Request: fold
Amino acid sequence: MTITDLHTAAAPSRPATPTLWTPVCRRVDLTPLWGEAALVHGRQVALFLLPDGRLFAVSNQDPATGSHVISRGIVGSKGGRPTIASPLHKDVFDLATGECLTNPDLRLPTWRVQEDADHVIAVAPSRALVAASHGTSDASGQRAVAALVEAVRIARPELVVADAFVDVQEPDVPAVIDGVHGDHDVTIVPLLLSAGYHVYHDLAETADAAVGAPAAGTGPRDVAVSAALGPDPRLADVLARRLDEIGLADDDTVVLAAAGSSDARAVDDCHATGALLAERIGRDVTVSFISAAEPRVPDAVAAARASAPGRVVVASYLLAPGYFATLAAEAGADATSSPLLTDGDAPPAELVAIVAERFDAASPA
Reply:
């Protein structure tokens, strides 16, 4: 086993560099089916070159024993999956995913690997996307949000994608971060439509507390928080589609029903979404709130009815079914659209794309 120490300086307590690509060797330095180890920012990485030319990078630390021996393991395959067998207890791990094929309680942290035009191989710690939704006691809302997270998981197979909640449901975000395996750095993506207290305080403080407090046996961890999902023109597209589903007519008056927040920035986000929806459907949109901000939805509906030539319809600017969606539906409108996510239907592609883009924008390059 060869250890290449690329960075001799002591790592700071909150390094930015572990999330960057670090050159470790050239392809000619690797022998097919023979592991090599590199020390990158205090963490040992085992690199493997397969006979077909594929490259893999994993932690050099055996998850069962803590010994840094994985580069001495035996490369093989199982069911078409490239594997590495630990030389100690012979546990077999999938080189691509880190899944242990012999013991489901173990997982080998994986690293991203890339090769440039000069055949220089670089590695970077894998990142985990922690999808942090508000949480709900409504079973249909739970299923709808879970379907969105699963769709993101399918769209981004190279990431660890984990469900977490800021309220009502478990596990909470700190517990999920603590449970993220090994060398995975973390980006928290709030599954929230506007950025209020949860984004600016709860999740920010969680990220600060988690930095430099990684899982046992690993180096410092980078934790970032992305922007909220809204405002975004694609959310207006989904809102318009939901209004079409209830037969929006030319003389209908539209009231946007948002959850509401005591944080003025979140309220501003909702007004921005109302403006995007108005542009999208070509008519005025009144922005209202279910709690914490004014006007309240029933009041906005009543005011609209006093001058509306046709129906008053509510556009539910809510992520999923639940208590707030029920309140929006009971606000007195002639018709109320469904939330952005609906139980039993595939999540809108726009939402999946927004989650992935928020992750990419917040994760260090």
User: Anything to note?
Assistant: Confidence is low (pLDDT under 50) at residues 1-19, 214-219. Residues 3-125 form a domain with the Rieske Iron-sulfur Protein fold (CATH 2.102.10.10). The radius of gyration is 24 Å.
